[in-house]
TrEMBL record:
Coiled coil: none annotated. This is Carrier domain-containing protein. It comes from the Bacteria. InterPro entries: ACP-like_sf (IPR036736), PP-bd_ACP (IPR009081). SUPFAM superfamilies: ACP-like. Residues 19-97 form the Carrier domain.
Length: 104
Protein backbone atom coordinates (compact mmCIF):
# COMPACT_ATOMS: atom_id res chain seq x y z
CA UNK A 1 0.00 0.00 0.00
CA UNK A 2 2.74 2.47 0.96
CA UNK A 3 4.62 1.62 -2.23
CA UNK A 4 1.58 2.55 -4.35
CA UNK A 5 1.22 5.86 -2.55
CA UNK A 6 4.93 6.58 -3.04
CA UNK A 7 4.73 5.68 -6.75
CA UNK A 8 1.71 7.96 -7.21
CA UNK A 9 3.48 10.79 -5.42
CA UNK A 10 6.54 10.34 -7.63
CA UNK A 11 4.36 10.42 -10.76
CA UNK A 12 2.76 13.60 -9.45
CA UNK A 13 6.15 15.24 -8.97
CA UNK A 14 7.25 14.20 -12.44
CA UNK A 15 3.99 15.55 -13.83
CA UNK A 16 4.51 18.92 -12.14
CA UNK A 17 8.11 19.08 -13.38
CA UNK A 18 6.92 18.38 -16.92
CA UNK A 19 4.33 21.13 -16.61
CA UNK A 20 6.97 23.62 -15.45
CA UNK A 21 9.31 22.48 -18.22
CA UNK A 22 6.56 22.84 -20.83
CA UNK A 23 5.76 26.38 -19.69
CA UNK A 24 9.45 27.33 -19.73
CA UNK A 25 9.92 25.89 -23.22
CA UNK A 26 6.82 27.70 -24.46
CA UNK A 27 8.12 30.98 -23.03
CA UNK A 28 11.59 30.58 -24.55
CA UNK A 29 10.21 29.54 -27.96
CA UNK A 30 7.67 32.37 -28.03
CA UNK A 31 9.90 35.14 -26.71
CA UNK A 32 13.39 34.31 -27.95
CA UNK A 33 12.97 31.95 -30.90
CA UNK A 34 9.98 33.71 -32.48
CA UNK A 35 7.95 30.51 -32.50
CA UNK A 36 10.65 28.37 -34.14
CA UNK A 37 10.67 25.41 -31.74
CA UNK A 38 13.11 23.55 -33.99
CA UNK A 39 15.82 26.03 -32.91
CA UNK A 40 15.44 25.13 -29.23
CA UNK A 41 18.63 23.48 -27.94
CA UNK A 42 18.60 20.37 -25.76
CA UNK A 43 17.39 20.67 -22.18
CA UNK A 44 20.94 20.71 -20.79
CA UNK A 45 22.44 23.07 -23.39
CA UNK A 46 23.24 26.62 -22.32
CA UNK A 47 20.69 29.14 -23.54
CA UNK A 48 23.32 31.89 -23.32
CA UNK A 49 26.12 29.97 -25.06
CA UNK A 50 23.69 28.97 -27.82
CA UNK A 51 22.87 32.65 -28.36
CA UNK A 52 19.22 32.22 -27.36
CA UNK A 53 19.22 34.58 -24.36
CA UNK A 54 21.39 37.62 -23.68
CA UNK A 55 21.64 39.76 -20.53
CA UNK A 56 18.41 41.59 -21.33
CA UNK A 57 16.75 38.24 -21.97
CA UNK A 58 17.81 37.04 -18.53
CA UNK A 59 15.99 40.01 -16.98
CA UNK A 60 12.86 39.19 -18.98
CA UNK A 61 13.16 35.55 -17.98
CA UNK A 62 13.42 36.45 -14.29
CA UNK A 63 10.32 38.65 -14.59
CA UNK A 64 8.45 35.76 -16.21
CA UNK A 65 9.54 33.32 -13.49
CA UNK A 66 8.43 35.66 -10.73
CA UNK A 67 5.06 36.46 -12.30
CA UNK A 68 4.16 33.02 -13.63
CA UNK A 69 5.41 30.82 -10.80
CA UNK A 70 5.05 33.24 -7.89
CA UNK A 71 8.67 32.95 -6.82
CA UNK A 72 11.25 35.57 -5.93
CA UNK A 73 14.58 35.46 -7.76
CA UNK A 74 17.39 37.37 -6.08
CA UNK A 75 20.29 38.88 -7.98
CA UNK A 76 22.62 36.25 -6.52
CA UNK A 77 20.42 33.51 -7.98
CA UNK A 78 20.75 34.75 -11.56
CA UNK A 79 23.58 32.36 -12.36
CA UNK A 80 23.93 29.65 -15.04
CA UNK A 81 23.51 26.87 -12.46
CA UNK A 82 19.96 28.17 -11.94
CA UNK A 83 18.98 29.85 -15.20
CA UNK A 84 21.40 28.55 -17.82
CA UNK A 85 19.34 25.83 -19.47
CA UNK A 86 15.81 24.45 -19.59
CA UNK A 87 16.86 21.66 -17.21
CA UNK A 88 18.45 24.10 -14.75
CA UNK A 89 15.45 26.42 -14.94
CA UNK A 90 13.04 23.57 -14.28
CA UNK A 91 15.04 22.37 -11.28
CA UNK A 92 15.39 25.93 -9.96
CA UNK A 93 11.67 26.73 -10.25
CA UNK A 94 10.66 23.43 -8.66
CA UNK A 95 13.12 24.02 -5.82
CA UNK A 96 11.87 27.55 -5.22
CA UNK A 97 8.25 26.41 -5.25
CA UNK A 98 9.10 23.67 -2.78
CA UNK A 99 11.04 26.13 -0.62
CA UNK A 100 14.30 24.24 -0.85
CA UNK A 101 16.33 27.28 -1.89
CA UNK A 102 18.38 25.83 -4.72
CA UNK A 103 20.27 29.07 -5.22
CA UNK A 104 24.01 28.62 -5.26
Amino acid sequence: MLRRVTERAQRGVVGMEMQVRTELVDFVVSNYLFGEASRLPGDHDSLVEQGIIDSTGVLELVEFLEERFGIQVSETETIPDNLGSIANLTKFVEGKKAGSGLAR
